[in-house]
Amino acid sequence: MGDGSLVSGAEIARLAGVERSAVSNWRRRHRDFPAPAGGSSVKPLFALAEVETWLRDRGKLRAIPATDRLWQRLRSYGDDRRLVDTLADVAVLLAFVGDTRSAWEDLAVLPDEELAERLPEAVASFVTQGRIPGGSPFADGLRPDQVPTWRLLVEMAREGIPEQIFEDLHSRYVDSTDRAIVVTPLDLATVIAAMVPPVLDGAVFDPSCGTGNLLQALGKKLGIGGSRAGQERDPAVARIAWYRIQWCGVGPEIIRQGDSLRNDQFAGTPGGPDGAAVVVCDPPTGDREWGHDELGYDARWEFGLPPRAEPELAWLQHCYAHIRPGGIAIVAMPIAAAARRSGRRIRGEMLRRGALREVIALPPGLAGGHSLGLHLWVLIRPSTGYIDDDGEISGAIGPATCVRMIDGSRFDRERVREIEGDWWHQYEDEPGVSAKVPVIELLDDDVDLTPARYVQRDEDDLVRAHEEAVNELTPVLGCLSKQQPPRMSRADVPADWPMVSLSELVKAQALDVILNRELPRMRIDLEVGDILVPVLDPSERPVVVRKESTLGLDGPTPDRHLIRCDQTVLDPDFVAGFLHSEQNVRQAVTGTGTFRFDPRRAMIPRLPLAEQRRYGAEFRKLAEFADLLQRTVRVGQDVVRLAQDGLTSGAFVPAPHQEPKGM
Fold first, then answer.
1. Element (H or E) spanning 10, and its range?
2. Would you say residue 484 lies in a domain?
3. Distance between CA atoms of 204 and 276, rounded to whole angstroms?
4. How many C-beta atoms surround the C-beta of residue 253 within 10 A?
5. pTM value?
6. What are the protein's UniProt keywords (predicted)?
7. Which domain holds residue 5?
8. What is the C-alpha to C-alpha distance for residues 183 and 207, in angstroms, rounded to an integer?
9. Could you give the count of Cα atoms lying within 13 Å of 158 in the half-sphere of its Cβ?
10. What is the domain count for the chain?
11. Could you give the percent of the chain with pLDDT greater than 70?
12. Is the pLDDT of residue 569 over 50?
């Protein structure tokens, strides 16, 4: 390319279609492998042009997807700080082209030198007229040699889906190890969104929205209900959030730029009727320069002025100030905030006012900025209610007299996903997981809100739970022992099928593909034969909905795409099986190693329906065997965990020692 683009070892592996370990081997074995041109000794970067030449000379270079090439060009513009600005420029240019197509067409015919001068001016005018957050675009100007990159972007947007292209670029930036901003992980955003009750009116607000992951997740959860608003301190990040939530929602979407604590762009009377119905927040942690000195008499501190060393309690009260009576705030908090002595007074006042309803401990690894795990604090503002049409008081919510403590710190990924289905009915009274603690018991000298301190499993409950797990595992092991491992017959000649993409099948009306981001705008019930395709987890197989299905789903979930086949032409099991082929999974991995599956790009064989059904029957058997194995592992882990807890708590004693037979 000759444009100075750099690539990592993972991206070289993608170019060649190999594992990362192969690239490491090439570096050791081949002295002529390109030397690092940047990065560090731990994470070196290589000149893309040199890598392409080296791979091409050895016949290892695959065709480079346009998105990969675009990403490398954008990344060559400067350091990581500049990269987020460039991504914000991508967002606003895509919006400009989409909203003012004729204006772009007039500019596109200009030579690169003239376009480099006039495009920033035209986009800046678009930003001003649209009151788009983020300051002036192309702040460093646009050089003529950079113009081809932006022409490529527009060309790709016209041939594909602009929002999907941006999501791909955004995911690559988020997965960049040296990025300068913290982004709420999708897993955490999905869990928080699952906890939000239906919003029939009023706004959903995130005062520290970052690039918009939480607001996106809420859009998928709420669909047509409620509008969304957010504030973000970083101008470029605010613009990215603005673009991302514009196309995934249907109500009014407002993003404003500014420091939420020092310069609240949505300021109002704390707890007023015009407040938000829901506030969600994954606030920055450990920032002692949050404004303690200048905000000493702020009306938002209903529970008291937060100490300088407790910025998270400042954010918590900021969120609480923005909810209306009866509104709910869900805030991600570091574990230490539940017990630090410096925050004891504020925690106590929050309890006395009956604002805190739940504290949920989540497992480590769910949030990038909380390596030791984190808590979710759920607050609801008490409400006197209103007089309904019958003259009765309705919607009254009194101060909390108990706080529900939920200890999910040991949940595995599958258990966390259970939360996504039906949060308010989960863990209502599960020994060892949840407990309702009277407020008076929490108001001791420590005012410690750590769930593990209050969630304890009674010995009888532990014994009973272990016995139930063993009773569940026994028949599962029996089923597994009767199953024969799948055995396949080797083909005499490797099959060489004609292939067809799902996008072509969509055009032929043989199937419909409904992407997960389109689902909030639609009301769809699942039908037998529908295929649910995971968006972000390559280890998950696509699931075919069956009449006897125990999925317990009324409709598609936000983390899955929906494929609906014309079953007179396509066999759903056949399609699902080939969607999970190694080739299709590999093409879904971005240049930074992230799995983001777009099923429209997937390829499947073009076979007669009868032959499809033969393959589909085999794929179904494999899926059933995999489900049995997974159930065995899950229940077996419960047996082991409960036995471990019993032995370490004194509820169990080691079994009597028995000498092996024949000794």
1. helix 9-16
2. no
3. 6
4. 20
5. 0.76
6. Methyltransferase, Transferase
7. 1-64
8. 14
9. 11
10. 4
11. 85
12. yes
